């Protein structure tokens, strides 16, 4: 089982805070540092110092780390043209010497689109955009040198592109996830290296993974060639009081978070993680909301990570 640190900078985070979390996670041997792709705070927080661009911050972190993998969970197709995404991610892949991964999704938070002037089409249209973007990004990266890539879609058109720059990795891992029962499994089967289910229970995870496996089989892809992962809100403390303090700090209740996330002492987290492994999860993205609490990263790194 691999553990990854997953952050939500739109809730309020500076580059220095993100870098500190990434470097501490690397120090302890976490598999990856990921961040969300949002431009507006959610809930009753002030959001200061304001939003940051996902690939701008990851580019900086790429140059100040050496081993930990870096990525997004997930970029919204409504924020960037797929060619720009392909170029930016390939650039950061080179800056990190081949450590990046791309999560791509349809987007959902309408308020941030209104706040910053992004077009927010219907869900069906956003899923159509997601399919086209996945096709274009993979096409640009995988077009052989000396050849060109073309695509004529309903939302995006690419004509005679050289598909440059090429990534350092022979294949940048692409993550597709979500709860959609039809289009999501199909897109994951067709384009993804990894399928991720965020913030669900084990029964929902198992059920959705079966849909993804069926979609793989339907197109002749080996279902085992896809990784199956989850994201869980995480709070860890050395004792009950510390768990309660950290849970309250992020605006959650212990009873609720124990039921719907990873919440408890290190031993409790280890047991929950083992349960996820039995359910078929290969990686857990641990959503850490208090980015000033490096002690919590230390605790998980020392008392949880070695035992899973």
Any descriptors?
308 residues; alpha/beta; TIM Barrel; 8-stranded parallel β-barrel; two-stranded antiparallel ribbon; 11 helices; globular
Number of domains: 1
Structural class of the helix and strand makeup?
alpha/beta
Q: How many helices in DSSP terms?
A: 11
Radius of gyration: 19 Å
Outline: globular
> Major sheet: size, sense and barrel closure?
8 strands, parallel, barrel
The CATH topology annotation reads as TIM Barrel
Strand content: 15-25%
Using the coordinates above, name the CATH class.
Answer: Alpha Beta
The helix fraction, in percent, is: 40-55%
Beta strands, count: 12
Largest sheet strand order: 1-2-3-5-8-9-10-12
Assign the CATH architecture.
Alpha-Beta Barrel
CATH superfamily membership, which one? Luciferase-like domain
Tell me about this structure.
With 308 residues, the chain is α/β, with parallel strands linked by helices. It has one domain (2-307): TIM Barrel, CATH 3.20.20.30. Helix content is 43%, strand content 19%. It is built from eleven helices and twelve strands. It has helices at residues 15-28, 54-63, 82-95, 110-116, 123-142, 183-191, 202-218, 240-249, 254-260, 266-278, 294-303, and strands spanning 2-7, 32-35, 69-72, 75-76, 100-105, 149-152, 157-161, 174-177, 194-198, 227-236, 262-264, 283-288. The protein has an eight-stranded parallel barrel with strand order 1-2-3-5-8-9-10-12, surrounded by nine helices. A two-stranded antiparallel sheet has the order 6-7. Helix 7 (202-218) links the parallel strand 9 (194-198) and strand 10 (227-236). Helix 1 (15-28) packs parallel to helix 11 (294-303), helix 5 (123-142) packs parallel to helix 6 (183-191) and helix 6 (183-191) packs across helix 7 (202-218). It is globular and about 60 Å long. The termini are close together. 43% of the residues are buried. The model has no long low-confidence stretch (mean pLDDT 97).
């Amino acid at each position: 089982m691999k553990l990854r640190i997953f952050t939500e900078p739109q809730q309020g985070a500076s580059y220095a805070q993100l870098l500190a979390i990434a470097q501490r996670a690397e120090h302890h041997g976490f598999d990856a540092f990921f961040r969300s792709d949002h431009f507006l705070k959610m809930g009753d927080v002030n959001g200061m110092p304001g939003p940051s661009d996902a690939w701008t911050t990851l580019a900086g972190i790429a140059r100040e780390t050496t081993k930990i993998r870096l990525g997004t969970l997930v970029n919204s197709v409504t924020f960037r043209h797929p060619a720009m995404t392909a170029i930016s991610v390939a650039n950061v892949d080179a800056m990190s010497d081949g450590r990046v991964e791309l999560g791509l999704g349809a987007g959902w938070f309408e308020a941030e689109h209104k706040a910053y002037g992004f077009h927010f089409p219907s869900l069906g249209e956003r899923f159509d955009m997601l399919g086209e973007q996945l096709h274009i990004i993979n096409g640009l990266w995988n077009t052989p040198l000396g050849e060109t890539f073309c695509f004529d879609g309903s939302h995006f058109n690419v004509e005679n592109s050289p598909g440059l720059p090429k990534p350092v990795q022979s294949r940048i891992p692409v993550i597709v996830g979500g709860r959609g029962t039809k289009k999501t499994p199909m897109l994951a089967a067709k384009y993804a290296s990894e399928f991720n289910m965020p913030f669900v229970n084990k029964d929902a995870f198992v059920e959705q993974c079966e849909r993804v496996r069926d979609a793989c089989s339907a197109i002749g892809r080996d279902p085992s060639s896809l990784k199956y992962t989850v994201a869980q809100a995480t709070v860890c403390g050395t004792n009950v009081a510390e768990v309660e303090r950290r849970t309250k700090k992020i605006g959650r209740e212990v009873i609720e978070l124990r039921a719907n996330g990873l919440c408890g002492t290190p031993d409790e987290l280890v047991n929950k993680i083992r349960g996820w492994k039995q359910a078929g999860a290969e990686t857990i993205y641990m959503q850490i909301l208090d980015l000033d609490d490096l002690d919590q990263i230390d605790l998980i790194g020392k008392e949880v990570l070695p035992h899973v």
